[in-house]
Design goal:
mainly alpha; 2 helices; about 0% strand
């Protein structure tokens, strides 16, 4: 797990909390901000996921080259 995955997950959860808090108090602006934060968090987590795939592929190539 990398920094982007962690930060993205945290931001997504914080956005969910903010959205629900906005619903509870009837504040549409806070709901929207929460949804926006969730989208940002999901995007950051996906970036981290892609970085992990690239890192794993890079390591696989290195391992393959070293076996020769």
């Amino acid at each position: 797990m990398n920094k982007n995955q962690v930060q993205g997950t945290v931001k997504d959860i914080a956005g969910k909390v903010q959205e629900e808090a906005g619903k509870l108090v009837g504040n549409k602006e806070q709901e929207a901000k929460g949804i926006h934060k969730q989208v940002q968090g999901k995007a950051e987590k996906r970036l981290g996921d892609v970085k992990e795939v690239v890192k794993d592929a890079h390591q696989a190539v290195r391992d393959s080259v070293h076996k020769r």
